[in-house]
Amino acid sequence: MPDLTLQGLDLFADRIQTELAAVLQCSKDRIALDRPRAEDHGEFALPCFRFAKAAKKSPVELAGGLAESLRIADITASAVGPFLNFKICPIALARRITEDARSDAWGKRALGRKTLVEYSSPNIAKPMHVGHLRSTILGAALARLHEHLGHEVVRINHIGDWGSQFGKLVAGWRRWGEENEFKKDPIGHLLALYVRYHKEEKEDETLPADAKAAFQELESGQENDTRKLWARFTSFSLREFDKVYQRLDVKFDLVRGESWYESKLADVVDWLKKCQVLQEDDGAQIVDLSSEGIKTPCLVLTSHGTTLYATRDLAAACSRWEEFSFDRCLYVVGAEQTLHFNQFKAVLKRCNADWWNRIEHIPFGLIRFAEGKLSTREGRVLRLEEVLDRAVELAAEIIQEKNPDLKNKEVVAEQVGVGAIIFHDLKHQRQKDVLFNWKEVLSFEGDTGPYLQYTHARCCSILRKSENGVPESFDADLLTDANPLLVALGRFPDAILDAAEKREPTILSQALLKIAAAGNSFYREHRVLGTGDEQLEGARLAIIDSLRNTLRIGLGILGVPAPEEM
Ligand code: ARG
């Protein structure tokens, strides 16, 4: 098994840093290597400005002097103005990559930290919408990124199953609920009740009164009819959500609805009291956050004594801290909830819970369709399953056209359709709004999931067609003409680390696109099979296998299936 800390280009970066630290007499982590301006200048660059003063030289002189005096195994240094560039010897690189990149441990680390990732968290009795899709896809990718780096990861689904809206739903059900309709399409029927409630509550005063009473019954903690109804709505909704999770191959260690923290709410309120941060405001209990630079106070209890979204998040955070003592707890939730997260973190800070800054909101932008933002209240929702179905349908059409004889066409269409949606999401910076365009999502060319899947399948096909696969020993020295592909592959471990640290899966997506582009150029320009040169074929098969394995692992982390044929 390769060394888990130094794989791919990282090994060479480490050699450069070690040598420079000795020469410049500073610690290794001060040697922050960049990429050279032009790719043919090498793989790493050091801007010499920071070190010039101590060396009593101009940055240009320092770079020039170092380029002449440095001796690093397998690496040549050259100066361009104040920059010191480093080029890895292509043979050394080829040997290294064809060994590291073909292993299951490629890109792995053993960082050994504990990271909780909360994601998806849809609301009961409503269809999961595309915002939840983003949270699910991003959160699952972040969880896998951290796992690959050797974190102990706990995946949590914080289902929205509590709150005053359930009072509304119960009130609506008691007036207009239809058992048959509910059985046919549970979420559809509940959504219709919710929409109708909002339409009629303005004209009919008894409606909001009933809703409030129902929520109080729910919060009373007693086993009553209201609670039975709620439990039934919940279990039917969870079953619907599971269908989506199965298609996306997403799993959770803990599915804990907001209601799970019910028994802990009173303790949290007591704790806030003890910390003397609660104050009364018009009958309600709030925490003033102006000392933390937040104008809007955090509402903890309503004037009727019922809890709020923030109360339940405070309880959940405390309970998670007690249970896991996490290094980090990530909440993958849309940017529109930023204030909420700032508020509840600020409450923890005011209570001197010194772990408050281990809580991290990971916000993301909206998915925009031509129709604009969709609202549940008005009943204008595009269901997630419809989006997936449509992607799969389109994928099936494309497969029928491009490869009509493919075995398992239906399975592959599902993999391509779902994979396309996932990759489309993860290719954008998470904070940016994503404009959804079907043509772009499913194209087999350009920066898409199907393009990466296709490149992977192409490698599998080359390896299948070769007589004996990759030989036991091969001459990596013959791969100097694959340098751009080797460099792109060599950056894979660093892309994983960087993507996890910045909570930005797009860094991995973009690295994979670069790798695939370099791979496609390589096999377009170089014959792999049938060159008549056994040595050359063996070496080229090894790099195709490195490409295959890197795409397989990378797509796996993103959650994009990688079929071997398509
Ligand atoms: N259920 C919420 C919604 O759909 C998201 C929950 C986010 N997580 C949290 N701990 N507040 O808007």
Structural class: alpha/beta
Q: What portion of residues belong to β-strands? A: 5-15%
CATH architecture field of one domain? Orthogonal Bundle
Q: What would the average pLDDT be, to the nearest integer?
A: 93
CATH superfamily of one domain: Isoleucyl-tRNA Synthetase, Domain 1
The parts where pLDDT drops under 50 for at least 5 residues are none
Q: Which topology of one domain does CATH recognise?
A: Isoleucyl-tRNA Synthetase, Domain 1
- By DSSP (H or I, 4+ residues per run), the number of helices equals 21
Proportion of helical residues = 40-55%
Unique ligands: arginine
**CATH class placement of one domain:** Mainly Alpha
Number of DSSP-assigned strands: 13
Layout of helices and strands, plus pairs?
Blueprint: H1 9-24, E1 44-47, H2 49-55, H3 59-69, E2 75-80, E3 83-88, H4 90-100, E4 114-118, H5 130-148, E5 152-157, H6 164-176, H7 179-184, H8 186-200, H9 206-219, H10 225-248, E6 254-255, H11 265-274, E7 278-281, E8 284-287, E9 298-301, H12 309-324, E10 328-332, H13 338-350, E11 359-362, E12 367-368, H14 384-402, H15 409-426, E13 434-435, H16 438-442, H17 449-465, H18 483-490, H19 492-501, H20 506-525, H21 534-558
Parallel strand pairs: 4-5, 4-10, 5-6, 10-11, 12-13
Antiparallel strand pairs: 1-3, 2-3, 7-8, 8-9
Explain what you see:
This protein has helices at 9-24, 49-55, 59-69, 90-100, 130-148, 164-176, 179-184, 186-200, 206-219, 225-248, 265-274, 309-324, 338-350, 384-402, 409-426, 438-442, 449-465, 483-490, 492-501, 506-525, 534-558, and strands spanning 44-47, 75-80, 83-88, 114-118, 152-157, 254-255, 278-281, 284-287, 298-301, 328-332, 359-362, 367-368, 434-435. The mean pLDDT is 93. 52% of the residues lie in helices and 10% in strands. The protein is α/β, with parallel strands linked by helices. The longest helix is centred in the C-terminal third of the chain and has 25 residues, at 534-558. Among the domains are: 10-88, Gyrase A, domain 2, CATH 3.30.1360.70; 406-558, Isoleucyl-tRNA Synthetase, Domain 1, CATH 1.10.730. Helix 5 packs across helix 19 and helix 19 packs antiparallel against helix 20. Bound molecules: arginine (ARG). Arginine is lined by residues 118, 121-123, 158, 160, 313, 331, 333.
